[in-house]
Amino acid sequence: MKSIAITYTPYLNRLNALFAAVIALSVFFYGVFLLEAVANAAKRTDAQKELSAITTHIGEMETGYLAATRDLTLDSVKAMGYVAPAGITTVLADGSMKALSENR
User: Fold this and answer.
1) Statement: the pTM of the whole predicted model exceeds 0.70
2) What is the 3-state secondary structure (H, E, C) of 64-83?
3) Which of 28, 4, 25 is nearest to 12 (CA)?
């Protein structure tokens, strides 16, 4: 029985070193991935807060636009200096027209 134990003892030390290295590497990568997950969650929370702020700002701008357009009348527009167009012209283009470019 002693001869079998003596035969495999040199490999036992190498095997223990290999297992220790694998365990240490696993613990290291677990820590790295855990920190990355926490950082990702923090960034996602910040993005949700920013999205909420942007959505609120857009809502305020739409409310202001609707209030401004509701107050426009023909008399108030004429008072601002706008005039009705003299005429309306329709411009049609077909496939034979060439695009405007420097290459012609």
Assistant:
1) no
2) HHHHHHHCCCHHHHHHHCCC
3) 4
Locate tokens 């060439």: which residue?
Answer: 98
d(CA 26, CA 19): 10
Q: Is 8 exposed, middle or buried (0-12, 13-18, 19+ CB in 10 A)?
A: exposed
What tokens were used for 68? Answer: 């401004």
pLDDT for 33-52, tens place per residue? 999 999 999 999 999 999 99
Give pLDDT tens digits for 50-84: 999 999 999 999 999 999 888 888 888 888 888 88
Instruction: Answer whether 64's CB lies under 8 Å from 58's CB.
Output: no
Phi-psi region of 81 (alpha: psi -120 to 50; beta: other; left: phi over 0): left
Residues comprising the chain, all counted: 104
